[in-house]
């Protein structure tokens, strides 16, 4: 992989911030054999995103060199979009800094929600949008009244909703219910214990400070206790809103910015194969971009690494009524494929985020967030209810160029990665790189 690397930034509105860099890429695409697009997830700054890309490319180059240059002259587009750091602990009441009171943690969660960076790394006072900030400030002013006032709880929810874009709401992650439920009912549901799936023997409790880890029939671990139900619900509402904010941002960047970029590449170099790698919410961004594009002449492959969207994202009638939000990507061959998806029970962040969705819908299953739950995560369980899933390859395996993957275009592959991916961010190893390169090769050799 010897092609040039191009950095393109996108604003929070999905607009291309540095069109001169895009023009340089467009000018050079005629000399490339393919375009590789790298898209980060919930990073706080340019340095973190760039470090991810450097490690990805190092692993890809190592594997590519050993495999006799599968894809020479590949040019690389490195996407930078205004995401925010989001850890598993941020999703649960009491998971933050030790010693915080209930009210302090609610305020801290709201302060994090208020940050609305225009570009990746903007986290100063100027990164808050006035109308957005006003709504969150109102919510912050209500925290002291939440325990005793139903009206305060109602206004708290309405102000948080007013700061979000409801256009990204969908049935597959209960976000539609988040906007439609009566505020008091939302408090009631988010105040209940939240079930999580064990990450296997020896895994840490996700309880954190101020919570209790206990078990109910069926083996699910639950988060609850220690804090008042009202304050627990308030933290979860604020943190779910932050999750939704990043989900919405990733979709906007994908649809408005990255899709436009890729369409311009197609206009200039219509035969150029495009390979997209997305991690976490970056996976949502690349899938949103491809969903926006019409099917083209050249191959398009997807490598979705610990993707932070619903495991029903590609599904056909997952609840007997609704298709997944990105069903068109596979059904209409907007991505010609293959599409590979890493998933693991070790992904604690997704193992907590999606049980929160189950609480909104009050689907109190025994193993919330697993493949049988309507609200599981793609990076936790792989694609569910998706006819295009091919089961000839079901594991991410040791890097061994003597046994290539048997990927085919038009197919989706769920690669269970428990052996090689230990947490949500552990996606930079050579095993992941090898599977990605094999998907790229399969896309262009069909």
Automatic annotation (TrEMBL):
InterPro entries assigned: AB_hydrolase_fold
Protein name as annotated: Serine-threonine protein kinase
Taxonomic classification: Bacteria, Bacillati, Actinomycetota, Actinomycetes, Micrococcales
